[in-house]
Write a structure and sequence with these properties.
The chain is an alpha+beta fold. The protein has two domains: about 90 residues, P-loop containing nucleotide triphosphate hydrolases (Rossmann fold, 3-Layer(aba) Sandwich), CATH 3.40.50; about 30 residues, no CATH class. About 25% of the residues lie in helices and about 25% in strands. It has four helices and four strands. The radius of gyration is 16 Å and the shape is globular.
């Protein structure tokens, strides 16, 4: 029997079939808890949708998963890489090259189509137009 992510042993590596994996994330905003023990696993081809009422920690979770925020406790793994141990520059590259999300205050370019807005980081990074569209 496999333990759920939040019950897994602290020394246990993430499942190999999970592309994105987080265990027991904790994060506070100026002493006010934003995340308390959140765990998640996303396999290749799956889409993660985070919903909930305002102020419940959705953006904080996504920022921790993408490496924009470092959790105070817990760990985040992406493609078998421990994101929570990466330096600032490595996390920025990972975010630029592999993550896309539209937050509560989207900053989209109205003259672009939806797919172009979401593929913009890839296009800026030099990805061919066809590859960016497929992503």
């Amino acid at each position: 029997m496999v333990a759920p992510p939040d019950k897994a042993r602290p020394d246990q590596a993430p499942p190999q079939d999970d592309l994105l994996w987080a265990r027991s994330l904790h994060y506070s905003h100026s002493g006010s808890p934003g995340l308390i023990g959140v765990s998640a696993g996303v396999r290749q081809g799956e889409i993660l949708a985070v919903t909930g009422p305002r102020g419940c920690g959705k953006s904080t979770l996504l920022r921790c998963l993408a490496g924009q925020l470092l959790p105070e406790q817990g760990e985040v793994w992406f493609n078998s890489v421990p994101v929570h141990t990466l330096g600032t520059a490595a996390r920025e590259r990972l975010r630029r090259d592999r993550f896309a999300w539209i937050g509560p205050d989207p900053q989209l370019l109205p003259e672009l189509k939806v797919w172009e807005n979401t593929a913009l980081p890839l296009l800026i990074g030099g990805a061919p137009h066809r590859a960016a569209r497929r992503a």
